[in-house]
Amino acid sequence: MMRIAVNTRFLLSDYLEGYGHFLQEIFSRLVKAHPEHEFIFIFDRPFDQKFIFGKNVTPIVAGPPARHPLLWKYWYDFKLPAVLKKYKADVFFSPDGFCSLRTAVPQCLVIHDLAFLHFPSGISGSQLRFYKRNTPDYIAKAKTLITVSEFSKKDILENYPAASGKIRVIHNGIRPLFHPRSYEEKEAVKQQYTGGKEFFLCTGSLHPRKNGMNLLKAFSLFKKRQQSSMKLVLAGRLAWKYESFTESLKSYKYRDDVILTGYLPEEELAALTAAAYAQVYPSFFEGFGLPVAEAMQSGVAVITSAQSAMQEIAGEAALYADPADIQAIADQLKRIYKDETLRSELIRKGLAQAEKFDWDTAAALCWKAIEETIG
Predict the structure, then answer these.
(1) Nearest CA to 122 among 131, 133, 135?
(2) How far apart are CA 315 and CA 358, in angstroms?
(3) What angle do CA 94, 97, 101 make, to 5 degrees?
(4) Reduced to 3 DSSP states, what percent helix, strand and coil does the chain have, rounded to the nearest 5?
(5) Pairing relation of β-strands 231-235 and 199-203?
């Protein structure tokens, strides 16, 4: 029997985002697929029982909650080694790019992207210093590394040559609850959110890297040109440095056409995604871009950024724009609005492209990485 310790700090019932979704999808499968092994789930705060995926899971709460860099350091280098030792862990799996520098237990580390290097304004100064100081040591310490796209692998190798020989690409999957809906279902969602009007959707937390300001400006250009009743729905929590965005929105000419939903439970988000006229995801930087993949699987056309991982994920199934070019984003909004044949073609290609990403495959590949880490 193997004892697989997992950093489950991100399994949070009130908001399950990137790392949390990754953990839930991978380990709900691995726990069921490997009942002969023990999984030690290490939380940093009280947990929801729904995240205990089987009888072979031993949940541990090792506080205090690690919410800022000083506590990160304490949690990973002091609390964690004690837990790994006490429960005789054979391996430690961490989904957030952090590992422990003070344990001999072999570690498998997931680095989704290097956004902190390329978009440093996206996080606080203390967090940025922590990432820059510790990431080289984490990469050197980990026995195996996982990342979520060829784009991110290349980026990691260029910036941290110590990753060479121990990094593999495992694409994210797409949850099955993201799927096409009937006309009636879509109409009901539109009534709920936009009074029955068509809408562009942008999914993700509101912070500078997601490029909400340029999207607002591009939507404004679109509205001036088209005189359309189209709405813009922004689905995600207010995350970091969002104040200038919400201030701009107060005096925004088309304020009545912009809907902020806040954080949505995944079932609601999936229904909202399938009802969108198009997903518009003009992020400056992503290691994968999950909302793009989720939209494709939901039968929704996509406009996204012509950089970072999105072209790898969407291929020929999306329209692209430079995220810094407001006019280019507006032009693509106009194109997809006016050309129904193009939109139908993107939907068809997107459904085919989405088939490349499934969580069963990702989980099986993660298991191989864990076995390799144990050696």
Answers:
(1) 131
(2) 16
(3) 75
(4) 50, 15, 35
(5) parallel
Delineate the domains of the chain, giving CATH numbers in brackets.
Answer: 3-173+358-374 (3.40.50.2000), 183-354 (3.40.50.2000)
Phi-psi group of 195: left, alpha or beta (phi > 0 → left; psi -120 to 50 → alpha; rest → beta) = left
322, 306 contact by CB (below 8 A): yes
Are residues 304 and 291 in contact, defined by beta-carbon separation less than 8 angstroms? Answer: no
Encode pLDDT of 139-156 as tens digits.
999 999 999 999 999 999
Q: In what order do the strands lie in the sheet with 57-61?
A: 57-61, 38-43, 3-7, 91-94, 107-110, 144-147, 167-169
> Token digits for 333?
């909004």
Please give the Cα distance from 237 to 235 (Å, whole number).
7
Give the tens place of pLDDT for each residue, 219-270. 999 999 998 999 999 998 776 556 677 777 777 888 889 999 998 988 999 9
State the residue for tokens 């959110």: 193
- Asked, as a colleague might, if the bond just before 64 is cis with ω within 30 of 0, I would say yes
Taking a C-beta distance cutoff of 8 angstroms, is the pair 231, 257 a contact? yes
At 295, the amino acid letter reads A
Q: Token pair 């949940």 is at which residue?
A: 59
Task: Give the closest residue to 67 by CA, choosing from 24, 10, 19.
Answer: 10
CA 56 to chain centre: 27
pLDDT of residue 250: 77
Laid out side by side, the sheet with 278-281 consists of 258-260, 231-235, 199-203, 278-281, 301-305, 319-321
Helical H runs in 99-211?
115-118, 125-141, 150-159, 183-194
- Diameter of the chain measured on Cα atoms: 65
Tell how many helices (H) and how many strands (E) occur in the chain. Answer: 15, 13
- Spatial separation of the C-alpha atoms in residues 287 and 98, rounded to whole Å: 16
Burial 71-110 (b: 16+ CB within 10 A, else e): ebbebbbebbbebbeeeebbbbbbbbbbbbeebebbbbbb
